[in-house]
Amino acid sequence: MKESERMSEKVVSKKELVARIAENKGTTKIAAQEALDAVIVTIKDVLAEHKSVSLKDFLRLNVEFKEAHTRVNNFTGGTINVPAKYVVKAKPSKSLTN
Question: How many domains does the chain have?
Answer without folding.
Answer: 2
